Amino acid sequence: MKKVAALLPIKENSERVRRKNFRLLCGKPLYQWILETLLSCQRIDCVVIDTDSPRLINELNANYPKVKTILRPENIRGGMVSMNKVIEHDLLICKEYNHFIQTHTTNPLLSKNSIDDAIKCYFEGLSTFDSAFSVNRIQARTYWGDGTAINHTLGELRRTQDLVPIFEENSNFFLFSRQSFAKTKSRLGEKPLLYETSRIESLEIDEEEDFKFVELVLSVLIERSDKCEKR
């Protein structure tokens, strides 16, 4: 099987939720949830963390020695820098890998099974697609800002399950090759495969209320898991 490196960017500070990546979520820092999921995936050979935090690098070296760390250069730091610029820098360092999955700390509920299956589908589809990214299916009556219907006819109340679905990028993950990135300078290739993830796995932490909601959902999932193990 071809080698895959997981790219995980982690900033020291966050704009909307203070120090979000290091804030405790159900007992451990947010970043550790997705990191430990990536490390458990059978189809990922290496986890690479790109960060502007020397403190985090020291912490990772002590607790996760298998993780490769990259100290982000000053010229590509800050909230206005495109993630594609960060990826471009990471690919210059990770020269031994040709295929990559990039994800975020803000998706702590993304599962090992979904990641492994997405990588499998990505490789199986390379004869047709050049990349892949995660989406949510929207099968509801949708409109443009001026009130124009997108996927239905105004006044014609077809069942929502019969409407043409629209797909929303959810930022769970992006799969791409060194070749596709070089061609487009983007984690999205010219012909990407859309991979659907569940609503729960797609929950993303951007705002304070997101953090509280995800913590509630995660605590319920943990409680259910503990009960199942005791049976």
Describe the structure.
The protein has 231 residues and is an alpha/beta fold. The protein has one domain (4-137, 169-230): Spore Coat Polysaccharide Biosynthesis Protein SpsA, Chain A. It has 6 helices and 9 strands, in the order βββαβαβαβαββαβα. It has helices spanning 30-40, 54-63, 83-93, 112-124, 178-184, 208-230; strands spanning 4-10, 24-25, 28-29, 46-51, 68-71, 99-103, 131-138, 166-177, 192-196. The strands form 2 sheets. Strands 5-4-1-6-8-7-9 form a 7-stranded mixed β-sheet, with helices on both faces. A two-stranded antiparallel ribbon has the order 2-3. Strand 4, helix 2 and strand 5 form a beta-alpha-beta unit. The chain is globular and about 60 Å long. The model has no long low-confidence stretch (mean pLDDT 91). GO terms for molecular function: N-acylneuraminate cytidylyltransferase activity. It comes from Desulfitobacterium hafniense (strain Y51). This is Acylneuraminate cytidylyltransferase.
Itemize the secondary structure elements and their pairings.
Elements (H helix, E strand, L loop, with lengths): L3 E7 L13 E2 L2 E2 H11 L5 E6 L2 H10 L4 E4 L11 H11 L5 E5 L8 H13 L6 E8 L27 E12 H7 L7 E5 L11 H23 L1
Parallel strand pairs: 1-4, 1-6, 4-5, 7-9
Antiparallel strand pairs: 2-3, 6-8, 7-8
Succession of helices and strands: EEEHEHEHEHEEHEH
- pLDDT < 50 runs, ≥5 residues: none
Categorize the overall geometry: globular
- Read across the widest sheet, the strand sequence of neighbours is 5-4-1-6-8-7-9
List the total number of helices. 6
Q: Provide the CATH architecture.
A: Alpha-Beta Complex
Share of helical residues: 25-40%
Mind telling me the CATH class?
Alpha Beta
Based on CA atoms alone, the radius of gyration comes out at 19 Å
Number of separate strands: 9
Protein name: Acylneuraminate cytidylyltransferase
GO molecular function: N-acylneuraminate cytidylyltransferase activity
InterPro entries: CMP-NeuNAc_synthase (IPR050793), Cytidylyl_trans (IPR003329), Nucleotide-diphossugar_trans (IPR029044)
Organism: Desulfitobacterium hafniense (strain Y51)
